[in-house]
Amino acid sequence: xxxxxxxxxxxxxxLRKRFGKTDIIRGIDMAVRPGERVGIxxxxxxxxxxxxxxxSGRFEPSSGEILLNGYRVDGKKSFEINRMGLSRSFQITNIxxxxxxxxxxxCGVLWSLGYKYTFLKFLLDLDDANDRAETLMEMVRLDKKRxxxxxxxxxxxxxxxxxGITIAGGANVILLDEPTAGMSKSETSxxxxxxxxxxxxxxxLTVEHDMGVVFGLADKIAVVVYGELLAFDTxxxxxxxxxxxxxxxxxxxxxxxxxxxx
Amino acid sequence: MARTTKRADVYVFKPVNxxxxxxxxxxxxxxxxxxxIFDSSxxxxxxxxxxxxxxxxxxYNMLLGQGGMLSFGHAVYSGMGAFLAIHTLNRVTDGLAxxxxxxxxxxxxxxxxxxxxxxxxxxxxxxxxxxxITLGVGELVWAMALMFPEFFGGEGxxxxxxxxxxxxxxxxxxxxxxxxxxxAVYTFICTALMYAFTRTPLGRMLNxxxxxxxxxxxVGYNTQVVRYIAFVIAAFFAGISGGLAxxxxxxxxxxxxxxxxxxxxxxxxxxxxxxxxxxxxxxGILMVLAFVLLSEFTKAWLLYLGLIFLLMVVYAPGGVASLxxxxxxxxxxxxLRKLWVSYLALFATALVALCGAAAMVEMVYHLQLNLALGxxxxxxxxxxxAKGLNSWFGAAFVMFTGLGLFELCRRQFVRDWGDIQExxxxxxxxxxxxx
Lengths: 262, 435
Known about the structure:
Strand content of chain B: under 5%
CATH architecture of the largest domain in chain B: Orthogonal Bundle
CATH topology of chain A: Rossmann fold
CATH class of chain A: Alpha Beta
Strand order of the largest sheet of chain A: 6-7-8-3-9-10
Number of strands of chain A: 10
Largest sheet of chain B: 2 strands, antiparallel
Shape of chain A: globular
Strand order of the largest sheet of chain B: 1-2
Number of domains of chain A: 1
Structural class of chain B: mainly alpha
Number of strands of chain B: 4
Number of helices of chain B: 17
Oligomer: heterodimer
Largest interface: A-B, 41 and 32 residues
Shape of chain B: globular
Largest sheet of chain A: 6 strands, mixed
CATH class of the largest domain in chain B: Mainly Alpha
């Protein structure tokens, strides 16, 4: 597939979203180059998750444009956006609880391999889908749990499966909504390594609360405060930005220092 | 590279699933042999109806168990298939060159066509809105059945004669046994096709839609299209069952599209077990037994049925199939013999409680319906007086004694069951470690 690479994998132009009379996203402009890893931070209620929901088609924007690899996707359905090469994970684990690990991952790959809605082929004969699901299972370290129902996995395993389903379709833009939420410190660091490993070469946007995770994973940081993009730059530049410190990081740093003081 | 070769080996040399072949052969064998064992005309009638019920319950479970779609209007599709089949049969009688044995397929196609039209609206939503829409569509078709007597036959229904057209292989389908074998062939093929469906990409995505529709939208699938296609396929099989019913009864009344009929499908698919593929097969058998035999046995049969349904929903939501599978698991680990005394005790005490309760139910029904014959009635060999204190007191005593003993047995059983499950978990861990 020869395709002219668009300079931006994801572009937001004056994106706005209002619920009733409340403006949640108040005009965000942002352009992410292919292969960039963006960490999105901001206080609770700043609109980070809403931003993800807009990009992935869960909500329709009130105004503005979203371009994925140069194509307009605002107003499209989630499954259409997914077919155009964008995939996402969820803050609350969102898997297929009554299917096995293997089946979960296979469900993630079927569309991308072109099987669509067919009921004239047996799953068992789809060698490419089965191989891909097996590979994914090894990638997210769940190959020992192949036939375990997803609902019987541990929390960390479910999070890994969530990532596995997200990358299964081979999308080149990946959105991760707080991938390490609810994990212990040691689990988190292991998990970050896993995420880095499985998203090599992809454009990655991550919402994250854990500052260590953000600065470790991202090569650019976007700071969202009250529905606006306060800063979008390299981690060092963002750390040095006085407005960011004032609006957000300052309080976090102060909090961290206070905690360390105890 | 080495890894891929290894994987390819796993798939190429996957051993033929012997267990599955045995199960399907057994299924075919049962379908063939049963009418030879139970060869009375009553059992032939029952068996024919069972085949029809099995197909329709399996098709209903495509929606309920596999797709998480609670439909209150599945009879629309079995019913429309039946009407089209009976009209076609009458055309065949008038000289249309079509073998009678293919009429059910036509019924299936007709139902699928109806589902292509009505299904798009129906499957627009999932969960509760879906259930409401099916209810609405069901009422709509039911009302239409009364409005268009030309097609639906009004009060009397549409009747036909299945001995019509050319005799393929000399089969007239006049004798019930010939029709039974036609139904058996359809039952086997439909069961196999519906099972095959569960092993296809669409079948699996249907499970995914049941589990988590939102996530499905984010792996590239339009959930409505998944539901819609499955809905049309389910309607197709329901239509086949309707067509077979038309041949079997040689009359189709508007009752076949009623909400009452849809409710029966739901109830018995659930009783049989919606979580396992074979559950609805048991459900279909139970449906015929209840509708034909239980209703002969007692006037209060609907009340008993309601009670059983209630108890199953609360205590065994996986239906009869899940009870069987749980005990099969026990048997595989060799624990079943530890429990048979408990089962016997549970069964005996439940029977006692049931006798007491049933005696009272029968007395109430006797008072309501047969009082003109006097207050005395005979129940299980005992003569009761529906207006006598002794009978009521006795029945209540039997019931409460049964209930009390049952509760004692149940508590013991729950403890034993828990212990055994723990033992099985340990055993599984031990085997995993040994590998």
